[in-house]
Amino acid sequence: MVLKTIIVKSAYSSPSLFMLLFFLTLSGIVQLKGQETYGPVPGFDHLAWHELEYYAFVHFGPNSFTDKEWGDGREKAEIFKPTKLDCRQWARTFKKAGMKGIIITAKHHDGFCLYPSKYSKHTIREAGWKNGRGDVLRELSDACREYGLKMGVYMSPWDRNHPTYGTPEYNDVFADMLTEVLTGYGPLFEVWFDGANGEGPNGKKQEYDFPRFNALVKKHQPQALIFSDAGPDIRWVGNENGIAGDTCWYTMHRDELFPAYDNPSRLNKGDEKGKNWLPAECDVSIRPGWFYHASQDDAVKTPHQLLIIWQKSVGRGANLLLNIPVTPEGLVHKNDIRALMDFKKLRDQYYRRPLFATSNLSRVNETTYEADLGKKTNFNCIYVSENIALGQKVKHFRVLAFAKGEWKQVANSATMGRKRILHFPEVTADKIRIEITGSLASPVLKDIKVYKTP
Ligand code: FUL
Q1: Rounded to two decimals, what is the model's pTM?
Q2: Are the C-beta atoms of residues 381 and 449 closer than 8 Å to each other?
Q3: Are residues 254 and 111 located together in one domain of the fold?
Q4: CB of 289 shorter than 6 A to ligand 1
Q5: CATH number at residue 379
Q6: Which residue has the higher pLDDT, 67 or 19?
Q7: Is 53 touching ligand 1 by the criterion CB < 6 Å?
């Protein structure tokens, strides 16, 4: 809401006034002319989350030993016996790959807890690993701290082992298990609730008490964002291929969503009229399965396949959660390491060295921005970004290049968001324009970068 619109020129010459203005602007108390917010806007935690862009998912548990994707909860705990578990190797690898965090399956559908939960008899303690004193979450939390990565947890409410599953008592059990995870391992950036809801050991399904689970997250980890089919903070992108919609709004009506919400195409696109900031996260596995299977060692996605996924997720303004299943030994497999590193090299080759970059675009009019490249430049790719702190406004836009004395369209696109990467046939030009052809409110572009990619 605009309380007051002011322009304080002198603030820029006084550091303390500038800081005050900066704070008031961020907090929405003061808005500069032309910088009005529109619709829902992201808070600090969402803005920080958007900046993460790319982080790892790790599926690990009894399934890694039984060659299954879904354990039925009757697996003997002792099968979980990693001989070389090294969370520092995971963290080192993911850090080098340019990832910003790790989300681990603390508990999958088989109910097995990778930490010694007091509320279950199907945990790493019963596995006897490290004489019953092992705790993968503890090791991962230490490794994340050491390597400066954020940590998140995946918790499956569906539990095919717990005897109370399918009764109201189970919601207490799950709330207690969740509290252990929320209070025992330092700050978490994301809590990932899997919406799957099948039968438990007594053949009954559970009615999950998500409001209670969400409240626990907000109580113990107020900065953590909650992912589930229904948000409340991050939405599923509607597929497990890691692909965001070409049109991708950060907004949706949270009230319309519910666990197991079955409208993938709406989740994929979002809703330009949405009342809530509910951005999409693209989850996908580097292998065909979520868990490790030796038979898939040669089916690791190639760096080029990963690049295409990147362009269709991060390049459309969403976040990419890439799953790397660790081996039964407890390590990231060498084929996955190679793919991650080569993918990083490829990304650097493509997007590390822009030929031109500016956050100081001149405005030709209300809807057209221009940048002078300074010299004739040969390029085939552009990155554009709008200031999402003011809300997401751009519905569609086109890119024009000034070549041979005239403006020529080189690309057009749906929504812009915090990052839009567009590739097009090579062009040589010394000026470019971004023309906003549809916008929910006065658009505010943040920056652009121009590239020549391989
Ligand atoms: C799904 C699960 O059923 C899969 O096993 C996997 O964990 C995937 C990320 O979410 O709902």
Answers
A1: 0.93
A2: no
A3: yes
A4: no
A5: 2.60.120.260
A6: 67
A7: no
Angle at 423 between CA 422 and CA 428, to 5 degrees: 110
Distance 237 CA to ligand 1 centre (A): 14
**What's the structural domain count of the chain?**
3
Nearest CA, atom 3, ligand 1: 196
Q: What is the CATH number of the domain that holds 54?
A: 3.20.20.80
Q: What percent of the chain has pLDDT over 70?
A: 93
Q: 2 is in which domain, residue-wise?
A: 1-35
Phi-psi domain of 26 (left: phi exceeds 0; alpha: psi -120 through 50; beta: other): alpha
Cα dihedral sign for 106, 110, 115, 116? positive
- For the stretch 301-358, pLDDT in tens is 999 999 999 999 999 999 999 999 999 999 999 999 999 999 999 999 999 999 999 9
- Give the Å distance between the CA of 194 and the centre of ligand 1: 7
Span 276-280, mean pLDDT? 98
Domain boundary among 311, 329, 351: 351
Q: At CA 395, angle to CA 34 and CA 256, rounded to 5?
A: 105
In a domain, 42, yes or no: no
Distance CA 109, CA 262 (A): 20
Ligand 1 touching residue 110 (CB < 6 A): no
- Among 70, 262, 290, say which to mutate for ligand 1: greatest number of ligand atoms within 8 Å of CB: 290
Residue 56 Cα to ligand 1 middle (Å):
15
pLDDT tens readout for residues 181-232: 999 999 999 999 998 999 999 999 999 999 999 999 999 999 999 999 889 9
In a domain, 415, yes or no: yes
